[in-house]
């Protein structure tokens, strides 16, 4: 008798021979009746779900969120109901534009997505390591991402497409300056902040709401890589950030983030000097200071990368009672796009996968679909309303307060004409010291060297002149040297 447990098929049947296929004679053809061979090959052909269109390369870990300050004046969400309360979480970090096998150290924003397993359902805080983004209308998202991917003819990265789009999209300038600063190449995932970027709302027990932005401030401090370090690591250790995160948790050097919110009242939003829901702009901290909420700690590595990190699925549509959305156009687009992407990539019932499954009862009328493995609600009715005792019913007490849209008229409003695209990037450039400004200029010029169309270069330099003449002259000087 062997000390090993018996190898089985997916359906539990013992496998007698895992070395040789069933054939008609020693040299004959393989028989269709070799069900073990058929199952192995069929499963192998399906081992790779389609990679994410964006955020394909990722790392993740489990941990805990602990409330450290009382914010019940802003929200009735139960995960914040008392100081000291803990909620389990899963956090996935990622690069945005690269494929599944790309380097962790690429110049790129980093995804920062946190799944809170609360007793009222999952809350997904799906953010980045920057407080803003390149665009503010979801209609432009496919266009923008196409410029970050590969040229349809050469299948190479395309600086012409990147800078042509950016030079025609001045709302991207604020994020461009962050991307090409030292913050564009963070030193792994532990030494960077996370942001909701979008504006959300919180609702208290009295039905009163405020607008909020979420901030996750690294307690490890901020560390970034130089361009030379990032390039060297891309060749010598392309999985650098994954390795660093996994090994730190294994050493029990658990990374932590201070969780905070910025708060804006509806009255303040009404008289704010720019659109407070514009994803390309920040709220000044002097006017809306950070308010501490709690601490997030990562303290457990997944046992299987594919099961937890690759199959994890996040959506900003996943909120809990005591939270709400905002008129942020990009957020509104993501509320649809993310769940739709998961249904395509992982399957209709992706919410049942353990890493995605809520840790509270689930009761609804959704049935069937591929990979349904939770009993499919048995014989219970799958329609509403019904007169069957004991079936789930709506709970009006969780209704969100109405959103006042005033006398708004439905139309296609330009998202580029309503706001100033230059003052916040100018303020950011002015905050940088001389070394940081030089690094920014070198990084942007390095990227623009690949642009072959002079009109694209001149158009983009025109935007940089509106930020700061020194920025434009520095980039032009570097390009002229080449």
Break the fold down into its secondary structure elements and pairings.
Elements: H1 35-45, E1 58-67, E2 86-95, E3 110-118, E4 121-128, H2 141-148, H3 159-167, H4 173-179, E5 194-195, E6 200-203, E7 209-218, H5 227-236, H6 240-250, E8 256-264, H7 266-270, E9 291-300, H8 305-310, E10 323-324, H9 329-345, H10 423-431, H11 434-448, H12 454-467, H13 469-481
Antiparallel strand pairs: 1-2, 1-9, 2-3, 3-4, 5-7, 6-7, 6-10, 7-8, 8-9
Describe the structure.
The chain is α+β, with helices and mostly antiparallel strands and 482 residues long. 28% of the residues lie in helices and 15% in strands. It is globular. The termini are far apart. The model has no long low-confidence stretch (mean pLDDT 92).
* CATH hierarchy: architecture of the largest domain: Beta Barrel
CATH H-level name of the largest domain... which superfamily?
A: Catalase core domain
Give the fraction of residues assigned to helices.
Answer: 25-40%
Query: What name does CATH use for the topology of the largest domain?
Result: Catalase HpII,  Chain A, domain 1
Derived structural class: alpha+beta
Distance between the termini: 73 Å
The tally of strands reads: 10
Query: How many domains make up the 3D coordinates?
Result: 3
What integer is the average pLDDT?
92
Query: Radius of gyration, rounded?
Result: 25 Å
What's the helix count? 13
Using brief descriptors, characterize the structure shown.
10-stranded antiparallel beta sheet; Catalase HpII,  Chain A, domain 1; Cytochrome C Oxidase, Chain J; alpha+beta; 3 domains; 28% helix
């Amino acid at each position: 008798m062997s000390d090993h447990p018996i190898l089985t098929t997916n359906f539990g049947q013992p496998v007698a021979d895992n070395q040789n296929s069933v054939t008609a004679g020693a040299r004959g053809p393989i028989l269709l009746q070799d069900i073990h061979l058929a199952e192995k090959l069929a499963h192998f052909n399906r081992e790779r779900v389609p990679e994410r269109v964006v955020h394909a390369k990722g790392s993740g870990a489990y941990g805990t969120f602990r409330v450290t300050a009382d914010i019940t004046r802003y929200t009735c969400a139960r995960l914040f109901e008392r100081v000291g309360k803990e909620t389990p979480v899963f956090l996935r970090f990622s690069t945005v534009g690269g494929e599944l096998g790309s380097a962790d150290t690429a110049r790129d924003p980093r995804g920062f997505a946190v799944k809170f397993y609360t007793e009222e359902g999952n809350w997904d805080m799906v953010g980045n390591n920057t407080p803003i983004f390149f665009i503010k209308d979801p209609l432009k998202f496919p266009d923008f991402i196409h410029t970050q991917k590969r040229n349809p003819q050469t299948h190479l990265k395309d600086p012409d497409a990147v800078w042509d789009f950016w030079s025609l999209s001045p709302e991207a300038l604020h994020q461009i300056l962050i991307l090409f600063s030292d913050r564009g190449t963070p030193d792994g995932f532990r030494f960077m902040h996370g942001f909701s970027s979008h504006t959300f709302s919180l609702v208290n027990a009295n039905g009163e709401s405020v607008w909020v932005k979420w901030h996750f401030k690294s307690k490890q401090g901020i560390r970034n890589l130089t361009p030379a370090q990032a390039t060297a690591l891309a060749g010598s250790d392309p999985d650098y950030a994954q390795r660093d995160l996994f090994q730190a948790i294994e050493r029990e050097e658990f990374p932590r983030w201070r969780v905070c919110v910025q708060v804006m009242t509806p009255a303040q939003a009404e008289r704010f000097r720019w659109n407070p829901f514009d994803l390309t702009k920040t709220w000044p901290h002097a006017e809306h200071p950070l308010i501490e909420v709690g601490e997030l700690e990562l303290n457990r590595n997944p046992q299987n990368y594919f099961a937890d990190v690759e199959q994890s699925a996040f959506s900003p549509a996943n909120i809990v009672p005591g939270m709400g959305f905002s008129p942020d156009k990009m957020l509104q687009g993501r509320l649809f796009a993310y769940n739709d992407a998961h249904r395509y990539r992982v399957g209709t019932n992706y919410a049942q996968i353990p890493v995605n499954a809520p840790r509270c009862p689930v009761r609804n009328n959704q049935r069937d679909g591929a990979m349904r493995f939770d009993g499919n609600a048995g014989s219970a009715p799958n329609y509403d309303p019904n007169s069957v005792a004991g079936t789930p019913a709506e709970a009006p007490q969780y209704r969100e307060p109405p959103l006042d849209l005033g006398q708004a008229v439905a139309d296609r409003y330009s998202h580029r004409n309503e706001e100033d695209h230059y003052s916040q990037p100018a303020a950011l450039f002015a905050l940088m010291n001389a070394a940081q400004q030089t690094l920014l200029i070198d990084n942007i010029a390095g990227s623009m060297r690949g642009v072959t169309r002079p009109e694209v270069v001149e158009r983009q330099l025109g935007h940089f002149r509106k930020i700061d003449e020194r920025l434009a002259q520095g980039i032009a000087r570097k390009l002229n040297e080449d």
